[in-house]
C-alpha cells in the first residue's frame, strides 16, 4: 500500500453535478496476460490508443447519507443492465479506499459504446477508463487543488483496479503500463504516454475484422488466473519484457519490418499461452487463420508492412501505416471481408486518449 498512498484522497466534502467522459479502447502491441496482487501485471505492456472505438459515460452525483458501499444506478445504452453489477461492485469496493468521499454520494451512471454490443470487442478498458475519469471529476469538485498530472495518473490508477488494460485507455497515442527499466517512471500502478514516437505511429491504422461477434468463451479474469502455474509462464513474462525493450527503439525510429515481426510474435505468444494452459482453450476460429494467411501473402507480394494482432478473442486487428491506406482498402474489401461475420469490420486508427464532453 506504500506507493498507493499518494492516491488516497483525504479531502472530505459533498458535491453535486454531472461529469461526462469519452474514453477509447486500446489494442496491446506487447500483451498483458498474467497478474498478481491488486491487479499488478506480471510483465509490462504497450498499446495503441484507438480513436473510434470508445465508451461514453455520464455520472450524475449527489450527496446522501454515507454508507459502507458505493450507491449507484447503472444504465447501459438506455436500459438497466444488472449483468454489469458484479464487475461494478468489485470496482467500487476496490477504489473506495482511494476515494472515500464516494460513500457520501449517490451515482447515476449511464454508459454507451460506439461499437456494436457483442462485436467481440472487449469494452472493459474503455468503460472502466471513462468511469474512472468521471470519478476523478467528483474528487476534483471536492478538492480543486489537484493538478492535471495527478488527475490523469489517478484516473489510470483507478481504471486499472476495474480492468488491468483500462490503465492504458486514458492517454494516447501509445501508452505503457508495468515496471520496465527501459521505460521512464514506469509503474505497475498506472499507465503513462510514451514520449518518443515516430510520426508514422501517430497515425497508424487499425482495421478490426469481426470474425466472431459472439461473446468470448473465456473471460480474461480466468485467462490471467491460468497463467498461475502455467508451465511456460516465466519464459513468457521474460519474452514480454524483452519485446518491450525492442519495441521502444522500433517505435522511436519507425523500423516497420521489426514492428511487424514483434507485434505478430506477441499476438501468437498470447494465444500460445491459451493453447497450452490447463484447461486449454482455442479462441481463434478458422477464419482468424484464413485472415492471417491472407495478410502474410499480401505482405510478401506487395512489401507493404501491414501486420496483425489479436486480443483474447477471434477478431483480427489489421495494423498498417496511414500512407498505405489506399492500397490496403481494396485488399480488405476483396480478401478479408469475406471472412468477417456478416462482412462486419471497424475502421479505426491511433488516437489521443480520453476526452471530456
Ligand atoms: O484488462 P483485462 O484483464 O481484460 O486483460 C486484457 C488482456 C488482453 O487484452 C488480452 C491483453 C492486453 O494487454 O490488453
Description:
By secondary structure, the protein is an alpha+beta fold. The chain has two domains: 193 residues, Ribosomal Protein S5, domain 2, CATH 3.30.230.10; 150 residues, Alpha-Beta Plaits (2-Layer Sandwich). It is built from nine helices and 14 strands. Strands 1, 4, 5, 6, 7, 8, 9 and 14 form an eight-stranded mixed β-sheet that branches. A four-stranded antiparallel β-sheet has the order 11-12-10-13. Helix 6 runs antiparallel to helix 7. The two termini are 33 Å apart. 46% of the residues are buried. (3R)-3-hydroxy-3-methyl-5-(phosphonooxy)pentanoic acid binds next to loops.
Brief account:
The chain is α+β, with helices and mostly antiparallel strands and 357 residues long. The protein contains 9 helices and 14 strands.
- Inertia-based shape: globular
Count up the helices: 9
Amino-to-carboxy terminus distance: 33 Å
Uncertain residue segments: none
Topology of helices and strands:
Layout: E1 17-30, E2 35-36, E3 40-41, E4 45-63, E5 71-76, E6 79-80, H1 85-95, E7 105-113, H2 124-142, H3 148-162, E8 174-177, E9 191-193, H4 199-202, E10 205-209, H5 220-225, H6 233-253, H7 256-275, H8 286-302, E11 307-310, E12 316-320, H9 325-336, E13 345-349, E14 355-356
Parallel strand pairs: 5-7
Antiparallel strand pairs: 1-4, 1-14, 2-3, 4-7, 4-8, 5-6, 8-9, 10-12, 10-13, 11-12
Helix pairs in contact: 2-3, 6-7
Bound molecules: (3R)-3-hydroxy-3-methyl-5-(phosphonooxy)pentanoic acid (PMV).
